[in-house]
Write a structure and sequence with these properties.
By secondary structure, the chain is mainly beta. The chain is built from one helix and ten strands, in the order H-E-E-E-E-E-E-E-E-E-E. It has two domains: about 30 residues, no CATH class; about 70 residues, RNA polymerase II/Efflux pump adaptor protein, barrel-sandwich hybrid domain (OB fold (Dihydrolipoamide Acetyltransferase, E2P), Beta Barrel). It is rod-shaped.
Length: about 140
């Protein structure tokens, strides 16, 4: 007996609405094995309205104490709103009669001192809060 294409087509059509991934039918004179890959759910259609990216609120940058000691403001005091350059000294921590400079790691604007002149400070304690510098101007190529 030859291949009965209409019968195979009917079996495939019947399987289309099911979760069956493999079927084998064996009868006298007829044997068919159908195997299919499990189907994944269709991905949702992309939205036609572009979603607005959530506003990226600038996170403050904190300058921390390099050692345990007593915090001292710099000889040229900084005020709220002053621009601070990367590497600029924003204070000193005196420890064992040594002056350890406290430097800004990145440029920004001084928001506030978190400690007062003469306050004891711990290693890693936040001393100064900076608003990070944002560069909204693209550099020409």
């Amino acid at each position: 007996m030859g291949v009965d294409i209409s019968r195979i087509a009917a079996i495939v059509k019947m399987l289309a609405g099911t979760r069956i991934s493999e079927l084998e039918i064996q009868e006298e004179g007829f044997h068919v094995k159908i195997r299919r890959q499990p189907t994944l759910p269709a991905a949702p259609a992309p939205s036609q309205v572009p979603e607005e990216a959530p506003a990226q609120e600038e996170q403050p940058v904190y300058i921390t104490s390099p050692v345990v000691g007593v915090f001292r403001k710099p000889s040229e005091p900084l005020n709220e709103g002053d621009k601070v350059e990367a590497g600029q000294v924003v204070g000193v921590v005196e420890s064992m009669r040594l002056a350890n400079p406290v430097r800004a790691a990145a440029p920004g604007t001084l928001v506030r001192y978190l400690v007062q002149d003469g306050d004891p400070v711990e290693y890693g304690q936040n001393l100064v809060e900076l608003a990070p510098e944002t560069n909204h101007h693209a550099e020409p190529i």
